[in-house]
Every structure is written in C-alpha cells, then in structure tokens.
Amino acid sequence: MTKQKSKAPPSAKPVPAGSSPPSAQLDQLRVRIDGIDQQLVELLAQRGRVVDQVTRVKQQHALPTFHPAREENLISVRRTQAVQAGLDPDYVEDLFRTMLRHSRVGQLDTLGRRGVRPGAKVLIVGGRGSMGRFFSRWFQQSDYEVHVLDVDDWPQVKPLTAGIDLCLLAVPIAVTPAIAGRIAPHLPRGCVLADITSLKREPLAAMLRAYDGPVVGLHPLFGPATTTMDKQIVVVSPGRQMDACQWLLDQLSVWGNILVDTPADEHDEIMGIVQALRHFATFAFGQFLHSRRVPISRTLELSSPIYRLELAMVGRLFAQDPLLYAEIVFATPERLTLLKDFIHSLNENLGMIEKGEKAEFVARFRKVADWFGPFSEQAMRESTFLVEKLVHRF
Amino acid sequence: MTKQKSKAPPSAKPVPAGSSPPSAQLDQLRVRIDGIDQQLVELLAQRGRVVDQVTRVKQQHALPTFHPAREENLISVRRTQAVQAGLDPDYVEDLFRTMLRHSRVGQLDTLGRRGVRPGAKVLIVGGRGSMGRFFSRWFQQSDYEVHVLDVDDWPQVKPLTAGIDLCLLAVPIAVTPAIAGRIAPHLPRGCVLADITSLKREPLAAMLRAYDGPVVGLHPLFGPATTTMDKQIVVVSPGRQMDACQWLLDQLSVWGNILVDTPADEHDEIMGIVQALRHFATFAFGQFLHSRRVPISRTLELSSPIYRLELAMVGRLFAQDPLLYAEIVFATPERLTLLKDFIHSLNENLGMIEKGEKAEFVARFRKVADWFGPFSEQAMRESTFLVEKLVHRF
Questions:
Q1: CA distances (Å), origin A259, targets A62, A165, A236
Q2: Please, where are the H alpha helices in B234-329?
Q3: What ipTM was reported for this prediction?
Q4: What is the pLDDT along chain B (394 residues), one digit of tens a residue?
Q5: Residue of chain A nearest B237, judged by CA positions
Q6: Is A10 an interface residue toward B (CB < 8 Å)?
C-alpha cells in the first residue's frame, strides 16, 4: 500500500503577474523568440558560406571530405558549452549532428564528383537498366568517358570495348554468367571486369572462367533511388589481380561508400538471410494483409509508432521493382531450402501456441534474448531514437 | 550507345590560392566555424530561457501547451528566410522541428504534471507491476492521491477503496475479468472503473457485468519504458456513463496522449493483426536466427541500413518482457486461427517459389502494391527519412 503526493515545482523566476494579460505577455515573449530564431537562421547561412569555402580549399588540394576527429571534437566542445549554458547536451548534439551531416552531404555533392582516374573509359553493360543508369551518372559526373552496351548494342561491341579500362556488368543475375562469357573475348588487356549483382559466387566464378585479366565482384547494398552514396555499403568479393582493380575501389570510396571485403561464399550465405529470407517474409506479410483486406489506414490510427515503422518496411518493399525481388528470392536452390526451414520453424512455433504452452514460449523467448545479448539493448535504443524522429516528423 | 562527359562546376568565388598552405587556410576557416557555433549555442540558451518564461505564463494561467498554428507559422517563416539566405529550407525546417519538439517536451514536463482533478483518489489494482508503477507515478506527479492494491493487499480492500474516484485495473489480461468481479462490490458510487489491458472485448464486458457505474476500457499503445506521453496513442473503448469518465480522458490528453475512440470488437480485431500477428512473426524470425546461429554482427556489417532497421525491430522485441508478448499472442482462439491462416498463406507462397513461378510472384507483388496504393510511396519516404537518421547517428 502506497500513498504519496508530489509537489508542483516552484517557479524560480516568476513573470510579474497582473502587469498585463497573459495573451499580451505571451505575444511579447513570442516576438523575442522570433528575433532569436531569425538570428539563428542568419548564423546558419553564415556557417554555410564558410563551409563552402572549406569545400573549395579541399577541392583545390584534393583533400578528403571527412575529418572524423574534427567532427567529434566539435561535438564535444558544443556539449560542454551546452552544459555550462544550462542546456541539455544531447539536444545540442542532435542539432549539431544534423548540421554536420548537412555540410558533409553538401561537400560530397561537390567533392564526390572527383574522378580517381578521370578520362578513363568505362563500359556499362546493361547501362539502360535502373542500376546501369545510376552508375553511368556517377561515372560521368566524375569525368569518366562512359559508354553503354545494352541488349541491342551487340553489333557495336568492337568499337564499344576499344580501349576501355572498366567493363561493369549491370545485368540481371540470371544472365550475368552468359554475358560475362560473351563480352570477355573483346576486353582489352588490363581492363577490369566487375559485376554488381546481389549474388557473388556464380557471377564471380563465371567472370574468372571467361576472362584472365583483373576481376572483382561488387554488391552495392543500395538501390537506384539512392541520392547519396555517403556511408552506403558495397560488398567487395575479390577475384583476380586486385592491384589492378584498386582504382575502381578507390573511386567507390571517394563517392562515400564503405567497402566491406567478403569472400563470395560467405557473402551468398549471409545474403540468403539478409535479403532472400527477409524479403520473402515481408512479401508474404504484405500479401496476407492484402488477402484479408486489412484496413491499413485504420490500423495506423490504432497503433504504436513501432507498428507504423514495421508497416512502413512492408509498404516500402511494394513501392519497388518486383523483378528485383523475384531475382533475389528465386536465386538459388539453397535459398528455397532456407525458406522451407523457416516455414517449418514457424509451424513448430504455431504448434506450441496451439497447445497453449506459454511457459515454453517464455523459455524460448529468453533463450533468444540471451543469444542476442547486448544487441537487443542496442536495438531498443536505436529503434526508440527513430520512433521519436518518426512521431515528431509525420 | 551513349557517350557523355560532364564538366566539373566552376568555383564561383575561389579562395586566393598560394597565399598560404591549405592546412593554414582550413585552420582559419575552422576557427570561423567554431565562432559561429559558439554563437549558435548562446542563442539556443537564450531561446531556452524565453521558452521557460512562456511555460511559466502558461502554467500560471492554465493555458494549453500546444499551439499548432503558431508552430506551423514559425516553421514557414523560417523556411522563407532560409530560401532568401540561400539555405535548403528542409534542412532549416529539420533543425527547427528538433528545437520545437525539445521545448514542447520541456513544457510538458512542467505543464503535463497539471492534474485535471487534483486531490482525487486513484486506486491502481496491480500497482506494483510495471504498467501499474508507470501510471502511479504519472497520477502522483499530477497531485492525485494514489493508492495501490496488489496481490497481497486484498485484506485491506475496504480502506483502500473508501472514497476513491477511479479504480484502474493494471493486471494481466487473463485475470482482468476475475479481478473486476472481485473489486466491483467495493467501489463507491460514481467511481470510474477502467482497465489498461491490450484486449478490450472481454475485459470491458466483465467490468460492465460486475459494476453498474461509469466504465471505460483503455489500451495505452506504449510500454512502461516510455519517458514521455507526448503524442502517444491511447485507445478508448466506451463502456457506460462516459460523461462521468471524461475527467480521466481529459487527464490523459493533458499528459499529451492522443485518444482514439474505438469499439471493443473493432479494437480486438485490428490488434490481432497489429500486435499478435506482428509479434508472432517477429518472435519466430528471431527464433529462427537463433536456431541457425546466424552471425548477427557479421550480417550487420554486410547490410543496408534498412536491414539494420528491420533487425533492430527483431532485437527490440527480445529486450522486453516475454510474459507481455505471451499474453498478447496466446490471448484468444481467434488469434490462433489468424496465425494458422498466416502460415497457410506462407506455405502457399513457398509452393509458388518451389515451382519457380517468377511471373506469378511478380503478378502477386503488383496486386499488393496496387492495393497498398499511396501508402507504399509514403512508407518509402518515411523509411528513407529514418534510414538517413540511422546512418548518420549510429
């Protein structure tokens, strides 16, 4: 049995009451806030102009965009100032991180165009597909000479491949091995052969079989709708003569990508989970909602931000290209086995619910929680942070 | 066949080159940025002090915290100024939304304590559970007289219920009907009886059967870890004498909650999807990752921010109380049927993949995409916004 009563906190410096009606007091205070806000925007504009100058100096001297130590130092100085000024340091950090991100993206827009090997010739095979067009644009912006070979251009294969430094295969997974075999005899000595499909074992093996020069398998973990490559991940599966491929990897880094070296086998196994299983589960969930005609907008009104976020993940999938997802889900027999195992495990869990085994549910739950370990806490923190952003933005 | 070459944009106002080495130039510019940043924090502190004064005026005159029109007007004035100053208005809006949210939460911390009916007596049944403790704290902060009746306190039921204005059931779903029956005979005339379980049909019916006074069913869509009620949703399923319950609903609004009126039947049906099905699917996915011993950290290194976000949703579940989820998943026979239907539909989709029917996959995908309609695009926009936040924060 508890009985408590808390007191309202005393107002430290009360506004002189009775001097004017509350609406007039509020109006006065709001005019002061507006004045401060105007000065804030003026300072942001000043800051933007100085950052532009920094960008120009970096551009003239080919200096890197990022300066992580500088950024962290800047944040910690502002946090200290915030505490001294009686402000919440997390709040001030949040604002400055937004400002830093903004200037970093702005710098990348300018500096990211820098070509590591400007003037080099790049042939994009499948260059009229969405990913092909995406990479054409980036190479062109970095002053490469970009040519495209699409399905109707094979009669021009000779002039198109003459003197090229990179042949990038941006064609569907299913035809990548065949296309590698068809283009390889035309590649000049020293030319890099690379692909960007979401599987690596088969395409890489096919490229290595067909061609004896430098080969590298790439898997960019982003779609053609991406506007910035800032911090986007590209998986790199080494093929042959990686020294000769280095300029291409450097170019990806300059564009802002993070490169993760991974052998093709390991890549394909992990992507089975990360892509095939996730996409299948999300597809099947959306399909189920549709088959039941679940009233989406009503469920959104009646749900926590977390459900809104989960449903956004489902809706997002269906805003994209079905062929891309079909390719990923139908890619290999191993993936089919994985999906079967998954559904088998779902059935097994359903059996437990059917039998009303709550204690077993809790036991399994705890086992998984232990296995996740600190990741769970981190996931909680990250998703809570995002949910706050979502609640206050939309 | 395409051949294009873009030009690097000319630098509008180049920094005089050669006058000093680039590092010295950068140092100078950084000193200027630091100076601007210091002024920014000073202005933020000034702004905070004025906002505190606004809060005090509102507190003295019991004025509402929010002023949506004022906020939107403020944002649009700053957007206009941003455009005139050559800044990206979305960027400036982003910063000001963060600032407004911060001051709103700060005001709620102070004003949200305001009791709609201070001094009224509240009995929380199950008040030592996590949600019970949560509501005890909020009622106490708003100057209510809070008593707790937990499992061992039934001998004191008479003094505990004497003169109470609200009896809030914060006990597990399974025992809510029984507890309602047990407490009802002790409730004084006019006392509001309410529950906060995540099902509404059964608990509400049980409360109405047991007690003939004011009754309302509540389902707060948030957990006990929530630090603010700002914009959190509470589903309200009307029971009886809603006029007499109004003060309780007003109190929830003052705390910042958004109330959504929903009949108990509709609530339970939608929650089957929103909670039971989602939680089961997420639980089963985590369980499958565990059974395969999938290397979580390696998958995170090799994945797009979207996967990171999806995995965070899974990890988040396992950071919480398994009993809470067991209650939701095992709640009703309808939910078991729903899960069975879901797994049946998964099996059906698996069959399609087994037969290699890619065209069918694409056709189903398009049907769902059409059905989702504009929600897909919105989901894409929201999740892209969040992914950017995630990428640049963690």
A1: 21, 21, 6
A2: 242-254, 264-271, 278-292, 296-301, 305-318, 322-329
A3: 0.72
A4: 333 433 333 333 444 444 577 788 889 999 999 999 999 999 999 999 999 898 888 777 767 666 667 777 888 899 999 999 989 888 999 899 889 888 877 776 676 677 889 999 999 999 898 899 999 999 998 999 999 999 999 999 999 999 999 999 999 888 999 999 999 999 999 999 999 999 999 999 999 999 999 999 999 998 887 777 877 889 999 999 999 999 999 999 888 888 999 999 999 999 998 889 999 999 999 999 999 998 888 888 888 777 888 888 899 899 888 988 998 899 899 999 999 999 999 999 999 999 999 999 999 999 999 998 888 888 887 777 777 766 655 4
A5: A302
A6: no
One-letter amino acid identity for A153?
Answer: D
What is the domain class of A24-111 according to CATH?
mainly alpha
Q: Is the pTM of this model over 0.80?
A: no
Domains in chain B: boundaries: 25-111, 121-262, 267-356
N-terminal to C-terminal alpha carbon distance within chain A: 42
* Domain range B121-262, its CATH number among 3.40.50.720, 3.40.30.10, 3.40.50.2000, 3.40.50.20: 3.40.50.720
Please, are residues A221 and A260 in contact by the beta-carbon 8 Å criterion?
A: no
Contact (CB<8Å) A91/B113: no
Q: Which residue in B119, B292, B145 sits closest to A339, CA to CA?
A: B292
For the record, the structure tokens of A141 come out as 């912006």
For B199: left if phi > 0, alpha if psi spans -120 to 50, otherwise beta; the answer is beta
CA–CA distances in Å: residue A74 to residues A47, A156, A312, A314: 14, 54, 35, 38
**Segment 218-277 of chain B within 8 Å of chain A by CB:** 221-222, 225, 230-233, 235, 260, 262, 266-267, 270-271, 273-275
Flag if B9 and A110 touch (Cβ within 8 Å): yes
CA distance B349 to B47: 57
CA nearest neighbour of B174 among B323, B321, B282, B275? B323
CB contact under 8 A, A56 and B149: no
CATH no. of B25-111: 1.20.59.10
Instruction: Give the pair of three-digit tokens for residue A48.
Output: 């933007």
Cα B31 from chain centroid (whole Å): 41
Residue A182 CB: number of other CB atoms within 10 A?
14
Distance from CA of A208 to the nearest CA of B (A): 23
Q: Which residues lie below 8 Å from residue A278, measured CB to CB, with a gap of 6+?
A: B307, B310
The length of chain B, given as a count of residues: 394
